[in-house]
Amino acid sequence: MTIRQPSWAPDLNQFKGPKYKAIADAMAADILNGKLTAGDKLPPHRELSWHLGVTVGTITRAYQEAERQGLVLGEVGRGTFITGETKSSSTRGKTSDFPIPYKNAPVQDDPNAPIQLDVGYPPPCGQEDALIQAMQTIMQSPDLTRLLSYQASAGMPEQREVTAQWARNRFPRASKKNIVITNGAQHAVFAALSAVTNPGDIVVVEELNHVGIKSIARNLNIKLHGIACDDHGMIPEALEQYCKHHRVAALQTVCTPNNPTNISMTLKRRERIAEICIQYNVMIVEDDIFACLLEDPLPPLTDFAPNHGIYASSISKILAPGLRVGYVSAPERLIPSIEAAIRATSGMASPLTVEVFCEWVRSGIAKELGIRLHTEMKARHEIFKNRFDPLGANYRLPKWALHAWLEIPEPHMAADFVFSAQKRGVQISTSGAFVIGRGNVPQYVRVCLGAPRQRDTVAQAVDILANLYAEGSAGTDRSFY
Question: Is residue 156 within 8 Å of 128, Cβ to Cβ?
Answer without folding.
Answer: no
